[in-house]
Write a structure and sequence with these properties.
Blueprint lengths: L13 E2 L2 E2 L4 E3 L11 H13 L4 E8 L12 E2 L6 H12 L4 E7 L15 E2 L3 E2 L7 E4 L2 H20 L4 E6 L5 H6 L14 H19 L4 E9 L12 H8 L6 E6 L2 H4 L12 H4 L10 E3 L6 H9 L5 E4 L1 H5 L3 H6 L14 H7 L33 E5 L3 H13 L2 E5 L8 H6 L9 H10 L5 E4 L6 H7 L3 E4 L3 E3 L20 E2 L1 H7 L10 E5 L5 H11 L4 E4 L15 H10 L3 E3 L2 E6 L3 E6 L5 E5 L2 E5 L2 E3 L2 H8 L4 H4 L3 E4 L9 H14 L22
Parallel strand pairs: 3-4, 3-14, 4-5, 4-6, 6-10, 7-9, 10-11, 11-12, 12-13, 13-14, 15-16, 15-18, 16-17, 18-29, 20-27, 21-22, 21-27, 22-23
Antiparallel strand pairs: 1-2, 8-9, 19-28, 24-25, 25-26
Amino acid sequence: MRDPRYDVLFEPVRIGPLTTRNRFWQVPHCSGMGYRYPNAEAYMRGIKAEGGWGVISTQEAEIHPSSEHSPANEGRFWDAADKPAMQLVTEKIHEHGSLAAIQLVHSGLHTTNRFSRMVPLAPSHVIADVGDPVQARAMDKSDIRELRRWYRDAAIRSKEAGFDIVYVYAGHDMSILQHFLSRRHNHRTDEYGGSFENRLRLFREVIEDTRDAIGDRCALAVRLAVDELLGPAGITSEAEGRDIIAALADVPDVWDVNLSGWPNDSQTSRFSEEGFQEKYTSFVKSVTTKPVVGVGRYTSPDSMVRVIRKGILDLIGAARPSIADPFLPRKIEEGRIDDIRECIGCNICTSGDNTCVPMRCTQNPTVGEEWRRGWHPERIAPVNAPEGVLIVGGGPAGLEAARALAARGAEVTLAEAGSEWGGRVSREARLPGLAAWGRVRDWRLGQLKTMTNAQMYLQSSLTADDVLAYGIPHVALATGSKWRADGVGRTHNHPLDFLSSGPVLTPDDIMDEGMAAISGEGPVVVFDDDWFYMGSVVAEVAAKSGREVVFVTPEAQVAPFSQHTLEQGRIQKRLLDLNVRIITAQALAGRDATGLELACVYTDRLSRIDCGALISVTARLPNDTLWQELTARKSEWADAGIKSVTRVGDCLAPGIIAAANYSGHSYAREFGETIDPAVAPFRREDVVPVLR
């Protein structure tokens, strides 16, 4: 039964000729499942409709081959040949009574057209902004006429494919329409450049063209970045961001407003709080009578109600929270607030799109698997025979395996050697900026505590003798991993004996003891060969203690993988703001009592830095002692009643938390099944008959 406090979230909202069934709006977001995986894309969006989102949007859909993102896998609606894939999306959304929206885009200078080989288009001559040695050409009047036609034709195709809402998109610095609006990109001297009204002209024309194309059956949405966080150099919510909306106030049927670029719009929880965009978007309703959608990584229904009641938004937009829990609206409606799987704001989802593969989620291991594996985020088939399972280790893999197995009806015993649940999640959540990561632990504990077939024991360190004595038929080892202290990682393939000339600490030491682990005097050197978040976080811990900190990496920048999670710039800025000295492109070459010798990764040229303590962030080793002991005694399994022993999570192979969660979930899903390792464990849609 729904709490009356949340009734306002389920009020219908009129948008042009349509009415939403509630105020939950899944805004356009990339998935990595675009034109190459249409079934995966459609089923993923359909699950969200089943979960109660009133409006479900696609990811950006390219309208023409002069705007393609290969090897990225976005939506594609170049011509009628793409219509069947798009119709599949609308059909899956409509099956559950939601409205289907499509975000049409021409990316202008934000593409290099690697596949089409067409010259990118832009308001003015400029280098394309995606790193390739490619320059976009300035559009002439005929190009502009063609662009308007492409938008118009794509809008017609969208209506024919069954979409209810068609977006005109000018956001994230990824749309040619935003490029024309921007003084940074638009240096034209004709009627499409110069003054504000001239720079607005193409945007206005495309909006009008789209309205004419969709007629009175579809609603028209405009997605606009109202602030670029560039101050006077860019669009700001105090100036032209406001002016654009004021000039077009009631032209669209609904405004979808956010920040630009994408790293600003989708900030991680390490750098922003829930609702962080409100200071930039709260003005919008004061200058338009049309409904307003906005985002802010909202997971709390109380926060959602607040922004509606305060008149900040009319519709709760979400991308990442809808990925973490596709059933978030339905759980609120059914009074199951505690069942909401809250987004942790880690942006592992964005890394999928940025590495050109189907997205994944730290909280929701089923995302991307809806079609190819048939995994549903809320339903899981019961086990054929409810045999007992002993899970050793209560970190993310162990907790998820226990939760999913208990949901299947298995008799689960979960044993954790330590005094708290969560394993690495709990320890990492105590590091600066990572508190939200504790939601991975909290949600699973909350679910497990309601299950009578799950027995949970802390401070239960088990030996091989214990496991054999218990005689529980199936054993899953989720005993985690530990950071190496010998220097072995990406750059150094063998242990570095010279490190023993002084104290060597690892992230485990910092997580266990904090700065108390660091003794002595002199600079704290963080050697990061991991390339993700951990090196910068432990450097932050040390710097905030007042110690001099030097960050050394073989890479050319701090935490390069965090480019994919959209936070590399903020990570490096934070270290610089904390006065951390950053040394790039250097490997470890030697050590004495007071310093480190470094070697340039390109020239082998040596240099020396002072070092009072070294924190090595390189690689991890599985905590697999119990596995080794049980394997050595495999001949005793049958007599003890043990049928299987399986490693999951970091115990199998250290990885990110999302991988551990996925590993635990896979174990639970596949439990009792016969798996053929010679066959792909999922359906494929990238296999086509060979043409002869």
